[in-house]
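Sharing a chain and its predicted structure for anyone who wants a worked example. Both blocks are below, sequence first, C-alpha cells second.
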Amino acid sequence: MRSLLCNAVSLFTMMIIVRVVLSWFPSTSGGFIAQVSYFVGRITEPVLSAVRQKLPRTGAIDFSSLVVLLFLQIVVQGMILRC
C-alpha cells in the first residue's frame, strides 16, 4: 500500500513539474502542448488553487507550485510515507 501511495505522490509531483515547465512555452489552441497542458492543469489545479488562496499575494509570481512540491517531498514522502 505504501509503494502505491509513493508512486501516486511521485506522479503528482511530476505533473506539477510538467505544468510549471509548460507554462514557460506558448501553446497553440488544439496543439499537443495545449492538450497536455489542459490535462495536467485539470489534475493539479484543485490542489494548487487551494494553496494559492492561503498564500499572501506576491504579484505576478505564483509560489503555490513550489509550496506544494516542498510539502509533498519533505512532509509526505520524507516524514509520513518514508519513500
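Comments welcome. The chain has one domain: 2-80.
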